[in-house]
Design goal:
mainly beta; 7-stranded mixed β-sheet
Amino acid sequence: VQLQASGGGLVQAGGSLRLSCAVSGLTFGNSAIAWFRQAPGKQRELVATISSGGITNYAGSVKGRFTISRDKDKNTVYLQMNGLKHEDTALYYCKLTVLGRAYWGQGTLVTVSS
């Protein structure tokens, strides 16, 4: 199982980015997928999750600004990030959990200039 995260970059505060997490090696129909982030000098934190049933949850700091979604045909999960703030600057990771096992993608860097 491999997860390939992409879509990070440099954006001005108030701008938008869409991150993608492409999954290969299994179809994620029965999987939960999450986005985490880790800012320099800080612990990794959960940003958003989407369950196998399509139920979504968000960290309070991103609720109303970020949207997690998935495209089963493309085996890809997205994180649409709007209204970006400087404090959203971090390395963003996707994580897939299935049958009690967890798989991580490599990070994609998001830098928000103030």
